[in-house]
Amino acid sequence: MNISVRKLSTLCKKDIIDYFKNPALVVCSLLPILFVLLYKYIDFSIQEGDRNTAALMQGTLINSCMCALMIPSTMIAEEKEKFTLRTLMLSNVNAMEFFWAKILVAGVITIVGNVVVFMISAESISYLPAYLLTSVFGNSCVVMLGADMGMACRDQASCSVLQIPVMLLFLLPVMLSGAAKFMLSLGKITPYGAMLRLYHGLTAGSVGAEKMAVSAAVILVWLIISSILFAYLYRVKGTDN
Description:
Number of helices: 10
Order of helices and strands: HHHHHHHHHH
Helix content: over 70%
Strand content: under 5%
Structural class: mainly alpha
Shape: globular
Mean pLDDT: 82
Radius of gyration: 18 Å
Largest sheet: none
């Protein structure tokens, strides 16, 4: 399918306006930043360097998971609920244009939030290129999964019920990986566990090349599955509730 730059630009502008009109989505972008600020300036008796890294990791996980899942899923569910999605499909907007508009807007908002978290955490600026590379790669599949959730749900209410369990499924194994071997193993096959392993491998060299390749493969598998699922859901459920 051919992608029209003009239609894609119009769809992106529409999605950005919809984002700022939805207070819940704006708040989900601000909460991780506030969390990092609190984490940085409350005394946990942690050395400065360790605190910076911990703040970056926690803030990145929360921002990435909340924004990458909530923004596309909520936007698509809202369009289905208000029947604007049906109108888009009937107005010569093809699947790829609709898909890329949602991915670009949600992805850019997520990455901007991650960069703000990185700056606040005061991590070494030399790590920023590796951070951006792994963030874009790791979040791409989760943004698509968020779009899948929006397509699968009937409306915003049903979508919000699904969002929290999925976020916990992605967050808890990574955050609790040091508490149990089961969580460590589960975290390795989640997108964000693989993303953080790639980041540590590129910056600190604490992950070997073979393990980095496995982590990249994990994200790639999630990306392929989420893309296929989106195409299926768009065809089967996209035109109606």
